[in-house]
Design a protein that fits this description.
It contains 27 helices and no strands. By secondary structure, it is mainly α.
């Protein structure tokens, strides 16, 4: 059936009708409703829509495709499983970006590698220019379908009328705004239109119709931008170059060499014998083709080594000073006249920033430095290992400072996320150290995969519940707890907080009941807004009221 759709002359019409159906589902899932189980449902349907109607443009599936699809699906499922508002906002923005990048990699007009930075530009090209140019395709399909019984002249006239109506909309908006400002009676007359329209039975669904029409056009134009992409002049020249292959490059190089040989024939009397014998110093065709392409920019190893040496000297001095009190800080051996809070605050942000700068230096030194001799490579590796070691000690220092600060003031979203970020930086440092030793490791690819996996882990670690657990453990040690902050946590932490309030801290019940609006636990308007964390919190809240 799919093959029949791909070969059908009405493929564009079938795709447009399918986009219309998907737009109808989209408005049913999201219009006027909170996001819940609707989000992963639509993500799955969108993937199916793209794979069905752009199947012939798809490259062979690999493990990275399964990984990307898994990341997207797991992030989409967080709208069903969890209720952390900051992460919901981030995921609402990140999931579409990941889907767009994944679609561009799979079925984009340029077959780019998934780690290629140019993939972002190609994705933007498909999202805007390639999609916008097919808005007119929607109009032509509608006119062609609606005017099958009309003649060619009538079809042309109908299409021009349709274009005229579309073009008049922005002019009408400006003109009506000016006229209503110029005449109050005309303004009152127009103001009565909404009341008159509300009496019509179809009027309540009018915004939904607009939603469906806009969504269907956007969905169709996006997928059709992959099916029939616009070819730029630069792409045509590049494709022509690669179609002709090495023959063009080799031929042009030979012609150049022949011209040179004619001019220098008197200086090279044995030229014919050289061509026939093909000595070792003559470039092979593969070498000629390679020379035709520009080599990537590489930094001089001596310059990079000198910079690393100077920077490492400062870092080693800093680390030696840190050793005087760093590893004793957790036991109370702090610098004189420094409290725990002052020690934790001092230099924390600066240490994180320096570690970030070191990562930039590491990437430049590992990826964009020319190779040197054996001794130079060993020296280069030693300098990079020193940089990684100093960065690790700085990161550990920042970790201890934040730990002390949390013990003094409690655990919050920001502090939890900073902890997670420092663990992430430590893993990046580990990969960088491995890359220094084993040069075949693709550093950027590992960083991309680790970044996506780390972000998914942060979503599934249960941040609110973990923050509640840590604050309760701190209460057991110090007897201090911030009930207002605990009650402001999302529905993910509600079952644990109710149990804590019931067994150990009854005063927390009042805070939780007062702040129940934060959980948005009213009657759910639709099954599409269902969220498991909110559902559990609603059950716990009913138990809390009965106690």
């Amino acid at each position: 059936m799919i093959d029949k759709i791909m070969a059908s002359p009405n493929r564009a019409l079938i795709t447009l009708l399918s986009a219309l159906m998907l737009a109808i589902i989209h408005q049913y899932l999201f219009y006027g409703k909170d996001i819940g189980v609707s989000y992963p449902i639509f993500v799955i349907l969108f993937y199916g829509f793209m794979f069905l109607f752009a199947r012939d443009r798809m490259r062979p599936l690999t493990m990275i495709d399964a990984f990307m699809a898994g990341v997207v699906l797991m992030l989409a499922l967080t709208f069903l499983l969890y209720d952390n508002e900051p992460l919901r906002i981030l995921n609402f923005l990140i999931v579409p970006v990941l889907i767009i990048l994944h679609m561009t990699y799979l079925i984009g007009r340029k077959q780019r590698q998934w780690w290629d930075i140019g993939l972002i530009g190609t994705a933007m090209d498909h999202l805007l220019p390639q999609s916008i140019r097919h808005w007119g395709t929607v109009a032509s399909i509608v006119v062609k379908t609606g005017g099958r019984g009309l003649g060619k002249t009538q079809k042309t006239a109908a299409f021009k009328v349709f274009i005229g109506l579309i073009a008049s909309v922005p002019i009408l908006i400006v003109v009506v705004a000016l006229l209503t400002s110029a005449d109050g009676i005309f303004n009152e007359y127009l103001s009565g239109f909404p009341q008159w329209l509300n009496q019509m039975t179809l009027t309540p669904g009018f915004p939904r119709v607009i939603w469906i029409l806009i969504a269907s056009v956007l969905l169709f134009s996006y997928v059709w931008g992959f099916v029939q992409p616009m070819q730029y002049e630069a792409d045509k020249r590049e494709n022509a170059h690669w179609k002709n292959g090495k023959a063009i490059t080799v031929t042009s190089e030979i012609e150049k060499r022949e011209d040179v040989s004619v001019n220098s024939i008197q200086e090279s009397p044995s030229l014919n014998s050289i061509i026939e014998d093909q000595p070792a110093n003559k470039p092979a065709p593969e070498a000629i083709s390679t020379q035709a392409h520009r080599e990537p920019l590489r930094l001089d190893p001596i310059i990079v080594g000198t910079m690393l040496l100077v920077i490492n000297c400062v870092y080693v001095l800093f680390v030696l000073v840190q050793f005087s009190y760093l590893f004793g800080a957790g036991e109370g051996h702090l610098p004189s006249e420094l409290s725990y809070a002052e020690y934790a605050r001092s230099g924390f942000v600066e240490l994180i920033l320096v570690t970030g700068i070191n990562f930039f230096i590491l990437i430049i030194a590992l990826q964009f430095t020319r190779s040197s001799g054996k001794i130079g490579s060993v020296v280069h590796q030693v300098l990079l290992f020193v940089l990684v070691g100093c960065s690790a000690i700085m990161l550990y220092s920042a970790f201890i400072r934040l730990n002390l600060y949390e013990q003094a003031y409690g655990y919050t979203y920001i502090r939890f996320l900073v902890h997670a970020f420092m663990i992430f930086l430590a893993l990046l440092l580990l990969i960088a150290a491995l890359r220094i030793r084993y040069t075949s490791i693709p550093l950027i690819r590992w960083y991309i995969v680790l970044s996506l996996a780390a972000y998914v882990a942060v979503n599934y670690v249960g941040m609110d519940k973990r923050i509640a657990e840590l604050n309760i453990a701190r209460y057991h040690q110090t007897g201090i707890i911030d009930t207002s902050y605990l009650a402001s946590l999302s529905a993910d932490a509600f079952p644990l907080l109710r149990e804590f309030a019931q067994r150990e801290y009854p005063n927390l019940k009042g805070e939780m009941l007062d702040r129940q609006a934060n959980f948005d636990l009213g009657e759910e308007s639709s099954w599409t807004s269902f969220n498991m964390a909110r559902h559990r919190a609603k059950l716990e809240l009913s138990k809390l009221r009965m106690e």
